Amino acid sequence: MPDKAERDVAVNRRAYHDYFIDEKYEAGVMLTGTEIKSVRNGRANLREGFVRIDANEAWLESVHISPYAQGNVMNQEPVRPRKLLLHRKEISSLIGKVKQKGYTLIPLRMYIVRNRAKVEVGLARGKRQYDKREAIAEREAKREIARAVRRG
Q1: Nearest to 50 by CA among 4, 94, 13, 105
Q2: CA distance 27 to 122
Q3: Domain ranges, residue 114
Q4: Distance in angstroms (rounded) separating the CA atoms of residues 22 and 10
Q5: What distance in Å separates the CA atoms of residue 58 and residue 81, rounded to the nearest whole number?
Q6: Angstrom distance (rounded) from CA 8 to CA 19
Q7: How far apart are the two ends of the chain, measured CA to CA in Å?
Q8: Is residue 149 part of a domain?
Q9: Where are the alpha helices (H) located in the chain, listed in sequence order?
Q10: Is the dihedral of CA 96, 100, 106, 108 positive or negative?
Q11: Is residue 147 situated within a structural domain?
Q12: pLDDT of 80 higher than 50
């Protein structure tokens, strides 16, 4: 078994449709005991999530982690800000890049590595409607070519 076996918990497929992803960063997430159990069960949703940076700290906002079934009183609020663990240099670099016009930080996927929850954060630029149409047309053209090749 490889040393760094990863297991995806949640993937934000919508992000690749709505944004151009320029850079990717790996960040740890500070979770409580019941939250990590819920994440290991695959009960996380990244769709509406984003990353906010303030006072040299990165916070994961609007990410829904369902309450753990056996957690009762120990459960936390499902949509609460969670601190991201990044190096100080990475955070200061991201602050400069996010201040540029049109850039935002969004979670792309959440996964487990060596029993730790990690989030892949993407530095993203928003797509316009015509960009989305272009991407769809390109995908359909590739499908047509693949069909033609299969037919002979």
Answers
A1: 105
A2: 11
A3: 6-127
A4: 20
A5: 10
A6: 21
A7: 40
A8: no
A9: 13-18, 33-40, 88-98, 129-151
A10: negative
A11: no
A12: yes
Which of 112, 101, 127, 121 is CA-nearest to residue 49?
121
C-alpha span between 55 and 82 (Å, rounded): 15
Residues with Cβ within 8 Å of residue 23, at least 6 apart in sequence: 97, 122, 123
Q: What is the DSSP string of 25-65?
A: EEEEE---HHHHHHHHTT-EE-TT-EEEEETTEEEEES-EE
As a residue count, the chain comes to: 152
Let me know if residue 142 belongs to a domain.
no
CATH number of the domain bearing residue 59: 2.40.280.10
- With a pLDDT cut of 90, the percent of the chain lying above it is 72
Greater pLDDT, 58 or 152: 58
How confident is the model at residue 2, as a pLDDT? 53
Q: Please tell me the total count of domains within the chain.
A: 1
Please name which of 116, 118, 55, 113 lies closest in space to residue 84, comparing C-alpha atoms.
Answer: 118
CA distance 113 to 151: 42
10 in a domain, yes or no? yes
Tokens 């949640």 locate to 10
16-59 pLDDT, tens digit per residue, is: 889 999 999 999 999 998 999 999 999 999 999 999 999 899 99
